[in-house]
Amino acid sequence: RKEVEQDPGPFNVPEGATVAFNCTYSNSASQSFFWYRQDCRKEPKLLMSVYSSGNEDGRFTAQLNRASQYISLLIRDSKLSDSATYLCVVSPSGNTPLVFGKGTRLSVIA
Amino acid sequence: GAGVSQSPSNKVTEKGKDVELRCDPISGHTALYWYRQSLGQGLEFLIYFQGNSAPDKSGLPSDRFSAERTGGSVSTLTIQRTQQEDSAVYLCASSLVWTSGGQETQYFGPGTRLLVL
User: Fold this and answer.
1) How confident is the model over B33-75, as pLDDT tens digits?
2) Which among A45, A90, A95, A99 is the top mutation candidate for probing chain B, defined by the most B β-carbons within 10 Å of its own β-carbon?
3) Do B91 and A32 touch (CB under 8 A)?
4) What percentage of chain B's residues is helix, strand, coil (to nearest 5)?
5) Preceding peptide of B25 cis, ω within 30°
6) If you write DSSP's letter for every residue of B31-71 in order, what string do you get?
7) Residue B28 near residue B73, CB atoms below 8 Å
8) Residues B69-108: pLDDT tens digits?
9) Between the CA of residue A88 and those of A46, A98, B84, what are the distances in Å?
């Protein structure tokens, strides 16, 4: 089983739609979780951290299910500018390099 | 303040030549990472520097790859005798490391696009 797995997509959705991505991780001892966004031919940038209690930032909601070892990202009211690849990222332990999923590609269509 | 910078932004080289890629982390960040991203692929961890500790080299794909971090700041990734399969975007990132051992957000540089002909 890969350390971090994501559906590669692409997800093609109309503007205004709600879209959800899931990600699973294999290391049950993982401590920190993040969603990064990567635009075409650009570097990854942090979108949001994922907390055990779930967290929301505007149109974006992230949730963590430790028992099932999955993380989700929900995007409401999709905008054209949301088109990007969304990377699920896990920190196996406190002071080790992050493990990146291969990303889920989202295209928001007018 | 300034973010992570990398140079060169693009590098074209011939198979068998050596290349050096440079990373300037965010000032004050103690942790520095190198990743590789091939076309359409995820980020592949290469090497990690944290303060004065021995680097974590577990991700280096072969002994042709090496990296140094001088003075706890600038880092250089060297690829010797380049092969066509080394063609990729090489990304550097830096972060603060908590005293408890956790880490804060990794900030990425724009990357160096390496093409080996």
Assistant:
1) 999 999 878 899 999 998 888 898 989 999 999 999 988 799 9
2) A95
3) no
4) 5, 50, 50
5) no
6) EEEEEEE-TT--EEEEEEEETTSPPB-TT--STTEEEEEST
7) no
8) 988 799 999 999 999 999 999 999 998 875 555 557 889 9
9) 10, 10, 29
